[in-house]
Amino acid sequence: MKASQIPGVTEHLSEEEARAMDVLVPIRTFAKGTVLLEAGAVATASYYAISGCVRLYYMVDGDERTTAFYIEGQSIASMNSFVNQVPANHYLSCVEESTLAIWSYTSEKELFRRFPRLESFCRVSLENDFGQHQDLLASFITKTPEERYAELIATRPELLQRVPQYLLASYLGVKPESLSRIRKRMVRKRGVLGTDIGAIKPRR
Amino acid sequence: MKASQIPGVTEHLSEEEARAMDVLVPIRTFAKGTVLLEAGAVATASYYAISGCVRLYYMVDGDERTTAFYIEGQSIASMNSFVNQVPANHYLSCVEESTLAIWSYTSEKELFRRFPRLESFCRVSLENDFGQHQDLLASFITKTPEERYAELIATRPELLQRVPQYLLASYLGVKPESLSRIRKRMVRKRGVLGTDIGAIKPRR
Question: What Cα–Cα distance (Å) separates residue B108 from each residue in A103, A112, B45, B46, B72?
Answer without folding.
Answer: 27, 20, 9, 10, 21
